């Protein structure tokens, strides 16, 4: 077996990947009670950290040593693995389903990526990596506590991370359409951003003052990709007989809109303060 063949096998053909099924009996963290309690505990801990530092009148950043760099490395590696695994798994699913699409449904690879057929269940390769993405959101939460200890504003991070956990849970719970492209976009952006932070954190040469530009560029690209996916999903849903997970899509759209509104309000307040 070649190196490429071995990677493909472990990431897209292994029984644990192919035989994955989202259910409380088989998947850790797959219940509504876990979702609600984990988000509540996370928000409470973040608020407690912030309150303790204010009580101690700590205004300077707390020395964290290599923790931020290690967190960036872990996030970059996890995101890269999910990106590659999902890319290979999506290609394998398209390969295996082509005969069915040609014979009966008329589905194309692009249509499948944007619009799962009604009745799709959260099982198989792509949902294994969707589950991995869901679990990686909990690793991402550590960034909030690092920000608090660095004495940076953490409210926006708490809201954003909580929303991402809820969103990735709903993707699995309702087999929401277009999540494949969304996860690929998220993980690619996170690989670049956290990879850059790790690179800069260990003291390797970087272009001066380009960190903010890298982060901003990834956010803009991610926003554009999500907007295009939403538009394609809506068009296919109404033109081609429906897409799976429309209810979850509506909820996520409202949630994302609310977060965007909060973000814009906070940015406006910052500019007024300056």
Automatic annotation (TrEMBL):
One of its GO terms (biological process) is fatty acid elongation, monounsaturated fatty acid. Pfam families: ELO. Signal peptide: none annotated. The chain crosses the membrane at residues 32-56, 68-92, 126-146, 153-172, 178-199, 211-239, 245-264. GO terms for cellular component: endoplasmic reticulum membrane. It is a multi-pass membrane protein. Its main location: membrane. Keywords: Fatty acid biosynthesis, Fatty acid metabolism, Lipid biosynthesis, Lipid metabolism, Membrane, Transferase, Transmembrane, Transmembrane helix. InterPro entries: ELO_fam (IPR002076). It is found in: Membrane. GO terms for molecular function: fatty acid elongase activity. The keyword Kinase does not apply. This is Elongation of fatty acids protein 3-like.
């Amino acid at each position: 077996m070649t190196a490429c063949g071995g990677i493909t096998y472990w990431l897209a053909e292994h029984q644990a990947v192919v035989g994955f099924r989202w259910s409380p009996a088989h998947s850790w963290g797959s219940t509504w009670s876990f979702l609600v309690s984990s988000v509540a505990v996370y928000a409470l801990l973040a608020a407690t950290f912030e309150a303790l530092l204010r009580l101690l009148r700590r205004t300077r950043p707390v020395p964290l040593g290599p923790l931020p760099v290690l967190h960036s490395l872990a996030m970059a590696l996890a995101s890269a693995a999910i990106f590659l695994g999902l890319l290979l798994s999506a290609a394998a699913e398209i390969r295996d389903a082509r005969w069915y699409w040609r014979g009966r449904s008329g589905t194309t690879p692009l249509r499948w990526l944007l619009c799962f057929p009604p009745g799709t269940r959260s099982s198989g390769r792509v949902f294994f990596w969707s589950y991995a993405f869901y679990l990686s959101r909990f690793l991402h939460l550590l960034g909030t506590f690092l920000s608090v200890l660095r004495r940076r504003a953490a409210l926006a991070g708490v809201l954003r991370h909580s929303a991402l956990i809820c969103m990735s849970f709903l993707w699995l719970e309702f087999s929401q359409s277009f999540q494949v492209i969304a996860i690929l976009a998220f993980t690619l952006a996170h690989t670049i951003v956290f990879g850059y932070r790790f690179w800069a954190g260990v003291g390797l040469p970087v272009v001066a003052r380009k960190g903010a530009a890298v982060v901003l560029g990834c956010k803009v690209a991610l926003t554009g990709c999500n907007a295009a996916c939403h538009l394609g999903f809506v068009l296919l849903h109404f033109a081609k007989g429906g897409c799976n997970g429309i209810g979850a899509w509506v909820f996520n759209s409202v949630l994302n809109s609310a977060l965007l509104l909060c973000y814009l309000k906070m940015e406006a307040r910052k500019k007024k303060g300056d």
